[in-house]
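Let us practice reading a record.
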Amino acid sequence: MTRSRGTSIFTVYEAASQEGWVFLMYRAIDSFPRWRSYFYFITLIFFLAWLVKNVFIAVIIETFAEIRVQFQQMWGSRSSTTSTATTQMFHEDAAGGWQLVAVDVNKPQGRAPACLQKMMRSSVFHMFILSMVAVDVIVAASNYYKGENFKRQYDEFYLAEVAFTVLFDLEALLKIWCLGFTGYISSSLHKFELLLVVGTTLHIYPDLYHSQFTYFQVLRVVRLIKISPALEDFVYKIFGPGKKLGSLVVFTASLLIVMSAISLQMFCFVEELDRFTTFPRAFMSMFQILTQEGWVDVMDQTLNAVGHMWAPVVAIYFILYHLFATLILLSLFVAVILDNLELDEDLKKLKQLKQSEANADTKEKLPLRLRIFEKFPNRPQMVKISKLPSDFTVPKIRESFMKQFIDRQQQDTSCLLRRLPSASSSSCDHSKRSAIEENKYIDQKLRKSVFSIRARNLLEKETAINKILRACTRQRMLSGSFEGQPAKERSILSVQHHIRQERRSLRHGSNSQRISRGKSLETLTQDHSNTVRYRNAQREDSEIKMIQEKKEQAEMKRKVQEEELRENHPYFDKPLFIVGREHRFRNFCRVVVRARFNASKTDPVTGAVKNTKYHQLYDLLGLVTYLDWVMIIVTICSCISMMFESPFRRVMHAPTLQIAEYVFVIFMSIELNLKIMADGLFFTPTAVIRDFGGVMDIFIYLVSLIFLCWMPQNVPAKSGAQLLMVLRCLRPLRIFKLVPQMRKVVRELFSGFKEIFLVSILLLTLMLVFASFGVQLFAGKLAKCNDPHIISREDCHGIFRINVSVSKNLNLKLRPGEKKPGFWVPRVWANPRNFNFDNVGNAMLALFEVLSLKGWVEVRDVIIHRVGPIHGIYIHVFVFLGCMIGLTLFVGVVIANFNENKGTALLTVDQRRWEDLKSRLKIAQPLHLPPRPDNDGFRAKMYDITQHPFFKRTIAVLVLAQSVLLSVKWDAADPVTVPLATMSVVFTFIFVLEVTMKIIAMSPAGFWQSRRNRYDLLVTSLGVIWVILHFALLNAYTYMMGACVIVFRFFSICGKHVTLKMLLLTVVVSMYKSFFIIVGMFLLLLCYAFAGVVLFGTVKYGENINRHANFSSAGKAITVLFRIVTGEDWNKIMHDCMVQPPFCTPDNSTYWKTDCGNYAGALMYFCSFYVIIAYIMLNLLVAIIVENFSLFYSTEEDQLLSYNDLRHFQIIWNMVDDKREGVIPTFRVKFLLRLLRGRLEVDLDKDKLLFKHMCYEMERLHNGGDVTFHDVLSMLSYRSVDIRKSLQLEELLAREQLEYTIEEEVAKQTIRMWLKKCLKRIRAKQQQSCSIIHSLRESQQQELSRFLNPPSIETTQPSEDMNAINQDNSAQPETSSQQQLLSPTLSDRGGYRQDSGDAGKPQRKFGQWRLPSAPKPISHSVSSVNLRFGGRSTMKSVACKMNPMSDAASCGSEVKKWWTRQLTVESDESGEDLLDI
């Protein structure tokens, strides 16, 4: 059992390494159903080799980046990219100090004449030398093998080499003469040139020609890098800081040496094993494992040699070495290259600004196809007005003509406003007084016309309020916490809030107002530095705003240009120059073309997006228009029809396949006509041909139309008809144009074409260097006779008998004198079948195959066997440079371009953390865990048991124990299978019990909320069904179903551990985000499969083209191409498709009657496919995995919001969202924020203003509607980071504007509430005073009635109590003397009137309610009243002494005046005017 389990794990690991997996699949196809083998091995390669393996790369990259941030000083600053032509030296200045001064090393220091020095520094001389280097490279690449009898030593190539060597020697001597030897040798470039000069001079010596010194000749091509500044900068960026890359190369070499020595000591005594007999052989074997080429053969030979006892130990040894070398060591090279491509933090911010400026500049210009109208004269279309009742002609004036006068008037006005203050100042001596006075008058008129009084008042009020708020904030910040209280750690929300408040106070406030007298000098210096820093930030804000305004202006100018062209040119924006701009037919076409499903369901009142149940389906339907959906379906159906085509069932002779062809062409004709009539063909703003996608659509349509009209019956090989059929295979690429996300994938591929092109040039240069060297050393030396007994070429003639072997391990028992089966073949002196070095072209092809790490072992063995062991260094050096640096450079560049296209390449560390946090928050969901039952009953106990960690660990152990049962094959005929299945049944019942306990504890509705619970329920239900079927049927199918249930159960363990969950999320999210890249890869695979059927569908079987791998149908072609994607012997398949006569049977009439291949077609077909898929598309998958891994992999120090913070928020949200709907009302947000603790806590004592800001932000988000889980979480995330460091430019401006608006609105609400409280207090005091006034009025009315009836009123004196009160209030002027007050009479119309029926009702006066008081009778006594107006209390003694003979009219007028004065005082101090603030 142990042996079978170990063998299966070993076999899966071999297949996951993409080495030999296809042969395992072919064996499985012969033994099992074809679909099962394909499904198993393709999913194995996809998940293990492409996803899980690339997770290792992501881990290494993230770890290396983290170490680089921590130990950045170890590697030095990236910004120290000084020129190679300059250096810095210390010089003493005039003051006696020392300073660094840049010294030009090209400065003349030699003894050459000035004319030669000038010539040496000229660009003409530089370009002449580089052109000579290029000619030398071309001459060296033209060398080829001319035969054995040709004299090679003194041919034209040798003479040319001597001439070029002399020329470059003279160049070096001239530079030494001009610069001096010291000045010449100080440059690293000159050192390299001097090394080449010495080496090539020795190389032209006849005895050393075509020796190892040839390296110096071919290395001249490296000097051509100086031709392109972009290439030179790219090379310096990669290899310039060689400390890291050099250290990694030394580490790799040391590892190889150590492991080779260990392997030599372990296996040198093993018999029948020659791979580890010497150190060079051991080194080559371990290097072969490092490159993964044939590493399984090395391990298998060693396992067979050591025997069964030590085989497991040896297998573990080789697997661990292979795992470390391929997954960790190669990932380190990728991490180092990515780190070299990384920019400095400050440089990133600068490039962000520059990129924004560049985008603003590009948006201002119209496309060239529209600017062509500017070359034609303006011919505006005039409007004829026929109903004007007059005889004179109407002037025809267009808007673009009048706009220039409007713009000029606005410019004059703005210029005048700018010039007026300077004209009125005292510094304008050149201006006259009359002009100044006139300008002042105009200034006043203009300013009155521009600014209104109300706008000024609002601005002054807003400024005053902001000033008060900032002063209060500063005071609170400076005051700090209260003394005597224990210091409490602030939450991140509080810290970031105080940072923003301090920044705004420093930005808007005065520095002198902040500084107190008791501050020390250090504190003042720190405050000054903070002020300077924030002023710099303010300048950055102005630059950002300027760029934003520039973008808006560019967009406006672009629209204005379009409008002017539309007005001045009647044919502008007319489809095909025929259909009118607003024609009914065009409007109808526009409606048809642009009709799409409205995926966003918004609330018409609040504007919030409604959460529908099938929102994912709605988003998919709204992805493209209805017309594009129809064409997507038609294109897919057409591609399915093309999959049934083959060389034996052609579309020209199959009417059923022609139907799909006619349908596709008809539908595409209708689509293109509608789009052309709606948007135009080329010379319109939204034309069909406005980008590469439109050109591809027209091309695919024309090819399909020509093929449908032609439909050739006979298609000769390598003819135009076959080329047309190959171009017809591009039809699946229409999906790229129809789906926006697919267009984005293509844009990501082509936008980074520059860097990919530079990497390709570097690899081609490397291949050219080694190819030229290989031609000069190995040309003609690799040929051999096919008869192994013949050594010399002279003896290689005649025929010989070759034996036929069915299998290597099959030994036929022959009779005495009987020979093995065989046949006679002619002797041939020829090169190896797949490669040779007879010319540069064949050498480049061989090295390209070696660069893909396929077939290089065969090349190495042939070179060692036929040329010499010392020449094995050649191929090892090339493989090391190509594998470790070349291929990893491709991976690094594709990842860097992917990040740059997504906008993450120029992000700083804080900005990248913020982007990771936003992506992580999008994935976060509310906890689908119901709360614990309130009572302590049975459900509560079940809840405690199921949520206990021990219960969860026990279930995880049981899952692992059940999975161990699959270590033995479940065979129906094996008696061991029955007890294993019985044990699995027991485990199934335990899991049923687990699910039942959870349902009881959480209730069925609560259990169904969690996706993990749903998955557990599904697997458990399948387990129950399997148990029933197992006891009912008991056959092989039930055992297979039981094994599948155990496998499904095993995946549930990934969600029970944090680290496993992180890795699983990385893989799942990577699959989700890479869906369109995988679809794009499949579409390219489909195009190449269709083309392969046309080109190689009838190729004869060879070494790798066989019954399993061929191009006879589209399905088999897809499997072959998937094998090529993994790199499994793709070069051998290519050579099988290159077969030419006399090794095949040609036919010139039709291509499906010949079994020959296509040499040029196979070369372009396989090389382009391997580069596009293996080097670019798969590396995009790596880039996505690296990006998604950074979302979940981060330490607590790096995370802006940690996992514990998110978990705490999810728990609090569960407490507030009791209905588990994912939304809560806005008023519950306050309750949620008060429940938060830890880093997200809001202290209401210290951060009450922050609490108000957060609540108001949630209120205004959906106009008071419900808020979602992600709404609140997003608000907390914005409040928990420093937006100045974490946010990008546009997002930063939008967020700061939002926070400023929230701050002002909250300030207004605060002031409004404060005023309302003040008014409430005033009104309460007024109500108290009004009750006293009412009692006074009642008493005065009674006194007045008594005054009218008796003849006289007695005079009263104030009592002692009143005198005491007056003495207490002697400070008030009203109480200094007695004041005579008169009571109003009934005849006074302005007096107070009250009906008898309203005596007990509250009365309204000036918008306020006043409660009446009970009448207080006063007869012949003192009337003392305590009046309170506006918060002031006044004691007044009233003593009226009236003469009965006085005039009633004069008395009424005095009472009226008194009453009016009382009302005036009351209305002035009532506080009603404060409501207008």
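A brief commentary: The longest helix spans residues 1289-1348.
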